[in-house]
Amino acid sequence: MPAGPPEEKIRSQILQALEDQDTTVIVDDALENQMVLNMGPQHPATHGVLRLLIRLDGETVTGCIPEMGYLHRGYEKIAENSTYHEFITHTDRLDYLSPLSNNVGYVLAVEKLVGVVVPPRAQYIRVLCCEMARVASHLVATGSMAMDVGALTVLLWTFREREKLLDIYDVLCGARFTTSYARIGGLQQDWTPQCTGMLQRFLDEFEEDLRDVEKLLSRNRIFIDRCQDVGHLSPEDAVALGVTGPILRAAGIPRDLRRDVPYLVYPEM
Predict the structure, then answer these.
(1) The domain 75-230: what is its CATH number?
(2) Where in the chain is the domain with CATH 1.10.645.10?
(3) How far is the CA of 256 from the CAs of 78, 158, 252, in angstroms?
């Protein structure tokens, strides 16, 4: 493919695109003017993945030009030069908020490819891992979203609960973050009674702690005003954009692969 235009040309094209959208009437009061702002690629809220050139009217985004391609790790090419087993460690990094479920998803694909059947005990442990990872990831999402709209307390509460899960990871596989726990055909090591006790204590405490988070957000006028009717997705748009998981379900489509395309021992749950 021919090389793309130089960076300066791209920048000028983006600025021109924003100007084409501009219908601003300039007034004397500077606070009444719209503002063009760079968000990323170095902004903490974007984690280096993209640059957004946005036009703001107060807190309302009136124009946005995304510039993609700031984060490309080449994992497909790395996988081509690795054995199936060697690539397991890379799956921790694909979504580092739920590394245990990434490990499981990858080895499931390899096992399907080579026709390996995993013992039932390993399947149950994998389900435990996936669900712990799911809860941990949702805790980060809830806490960081609340922090972004000004509710720092919720971030502290959700990260406190996540820490309890990471402690279980540590006992289970010797790592809190980059777990590399699943193996093709099984697991790195067995689940232990200590893990069972830690998980039971977490579950005993978690429901009440989650209610505290919900009460602090669902009755908070500031949180509601900042989130209500923002980022609304219709069911049709959600499908067209390839949205998955809880966001797809929030759009009104009851799609859950654990039930609709069951794997491991989820049909027995």
Answers:
(1) 1.10.645.10
(2) 75-230
(3) 31, 24, 12
